[in-house]
């Protein structure tokens, strides 16, 4: 699709919100040209030969009835919203959503039954509060997102986004997830960031310090509670902590997978430097752990720009076993074969 807006339109087409049992107005079932009332039920596989949306003829003539009036208001031959919802929710129904569908999918399909007029034209953007577009090849966070005036959660993980312009983000956002993209610079994102944002997910991107730390302060994220910077290329632990310490609401921090996490005193220094932190790298900070590392933040000299890595090789296949050569007796007439190997480590 290229842009978030294009991906959303493709997503709406996939949901088929105008097809039975969704769509504007009420549905009537036809079998062999004869309308069938509520008292007549056919097995679900037989319900599909001929379905007609009556709203195309009289959508503007009769307002939608309230639930208490449905038994009286729904004419003979038309399905009640409850009956249509049952077709969406029953796992044996051919119109049911798959078990792994998102709450967003379920919500929009049910709204298309109960209040389909809300999904017509641009009004659909007022309904969506959570938008999840995963692994759809999105490259651009375009200004079309501003049409989502109620959007609180935006999940764009596993795409190809390298740049996020904050002016294109709805001001109502509270959750922004951009994991598994190619974001390498936070300058555009921090120009006018959503002021109410509580979670920012930037794990598995291309961030590298120390130029990015300056964008992670309270000046840009006054309400940030959760921050995921895992598996980037951040190296300056001291510089990063000095900026993160300004985030007074920060409670959850993920930094694992960065080179700075290899520093021996990494966890202890962070625990003591950020006393309001509750979870670090998905591990709860226990009171005894905080007591153990008390005072470490005042000893930055313990943070060395080096780390020891122990690598052990388990089993190697396709190589001769050195033990076979040790069985050769000294003075043996057979040729002596010497083999040597080298291993390359890339960090």
TrEMBL record:
GO terms for cellular component: cytoplasm. Keywords: Leucine-rich repeat, Repeat. Coiled coil: none annotated. It comes from the Eukaryota. SUPFAM superfamilies: Outer arm dynein light chain 1 (SSF52075). This is LRC43 protein. It comes from Vireo altiloquus.
């Amino acid at each position: 699709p290229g842009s978030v807006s294009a991906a959303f339109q493709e997503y709406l087409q996939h949901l088929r919100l105008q097809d039975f049992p969704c769509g504007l107005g009420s549905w009537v079932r036809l079998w062999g040209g004869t309308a069938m009332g509520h008292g007549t039920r056919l097995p679900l596989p037989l319900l599909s030969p001929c379905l007609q949306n009556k709203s195309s003829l009289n959508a503007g003539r009769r307002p939608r009835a309230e639930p208490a009036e449905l038994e009286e208001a729904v004419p003979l031959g038309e399905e009640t919203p409850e009956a249509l919802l049952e077709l969406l929710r029953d796992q044996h129904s051919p119109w049911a959503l798959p078990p792994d569908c998102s709450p967003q999918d379920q919500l929009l399909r049910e709204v298309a039954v109960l209040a389909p007029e809300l999904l017509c034209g641009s009004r659909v953007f007022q309904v969506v509060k959570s938008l999840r577009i995963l692994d759809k090849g999105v490259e651009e966070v375009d200004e079309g997102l501003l049409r989502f005036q109620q959007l609180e959660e935006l999940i764009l993980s596993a795409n190809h986004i390298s740049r996020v312009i904050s002016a294109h983000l709805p001001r109502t956002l509270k959750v922004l997830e951009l994991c598994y993209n190619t974001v390498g610079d936070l300058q555009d994102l921090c120009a006018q960031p959503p002021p109410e944002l509580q979670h920012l997910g930037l794990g598995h991107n291309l961030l590298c310090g120390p130029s990015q730390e300056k964008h992670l302060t309270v000046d840009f994220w006054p309400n940030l509670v959760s921050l995921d910077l895992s598996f980037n290329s951040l190296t300056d632990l001291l510089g990063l902590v000095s900026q993160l310490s300004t985030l007074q609401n920060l409670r959850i921090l993920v930094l694992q997978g960065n080179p700075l996490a290899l520093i021996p005193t990494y966890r202890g220094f962070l625990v003591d430097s950020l006393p309001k932190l509750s979870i670090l790298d998905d591990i709860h900070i226990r009171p005894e752990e905080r007591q153990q590392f008390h005072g470490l933040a005042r000893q930055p000299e313990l943070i060395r720009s080096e780390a020891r890595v122990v690598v052990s090789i388990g089993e190697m296949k396709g190589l001769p076993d050195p033990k076979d050569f040790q069985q050769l007796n000294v003075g043996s007439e057979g040729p002596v074969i010497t083999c040597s190997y080298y291993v390359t480590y890339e960090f």
